[in-house]
Amino acid sequence: MVTPFTSDGSLDLDGARRLADHLVGEGRCDGLVLNGTTGESPTTTDEEKSALVRAVVEAVGDRARITAGVGSADTRGTVALARAAEAAGAHGVLVVTPYYSRPPQEDVAEHFRTVADAVGVPVMLYDIPGRTGTRIEPDTMLRLAEHPRIAGVKDCAYDLLGSAKVIAATGLAYYSGCEELNLPLRAVGAVGCVSTVANVAGPAVAAALDAYDRGANAEATRLHQRTLPLVELMMAAGLPGTVTAKALLNALGLPSGPVRAPLRAASPDRTKALLEAYESTRSSPSGGTSWGHPQR
After folding, report:
1. Is residue 6 part of a domain?
2. Which residues are catalytic?
3. Residue 12 CA, distance from chain mean position
4. Domain total for the chain?
5. Tens digits of per-residue pLDDT, 170-203?
6. FRET pair for 176, CA 20 to 30 Å: which of 136, 194, 202, 288?
């Protein structure tokens, strides 16, 4: 979930409550991840992160699981963030691999174990070597799966074979963190996705996975393919997903507000293209439309 801000860049807790309620209801999200990359965690304070968790937990109650991003390059700092998120009401925490320092694998494993030992809620590992510079290697995943509170993985490793091997050998709940791999990972045993695109097109993202779960593989493929133009424009066309998601949410009249520097808003031309791609995902198989209407 994006982190809504007011026009002056302050945290918009009322907007966060309204957006969370919308995503869980019309957006068909059965869980929300707060304070992740799309939530602009690098530019929000620890106090803002806790306030956001409290506000969203208050808004959605027991209708959705709330997972709070708590990752940092510092183990002590990550432990402090994880404890604060648990105290604020998060049902679980998302912990990214320590970045920049590029620790060896046993140090990576000890980082995750230390955080998991410090809290009483489930831990989701976040494997995204393209951003952190360090992979959580499959053998490391197998060792970490033995910890009673390490329960899941947000997978952005782009290694389908490695992910499939870990899924087959462990009870870890795998979630695709790369929109184009939502369906392929589901086919090898992932349980869902942590999606930036679902900020604006949750019903379309869910529809492809629902079709697969019904055994309607051809329909699942068609629905997955229908999201790809929007996925490409939002995630692989030169702008961060935070920027594109907020551009669309603002255009749709949903709580969002500006991005914080160093990010900058999408141009009007890019927003127009995003809206056109978004519209192509809205038609339901029966000819109706899903939620969200652009402001004219």
Report:
1. no
2. 126, 154
3. 19
4. 1
5. 999 999 999 999 999 999 999 999 999 999 999 9
6. 288
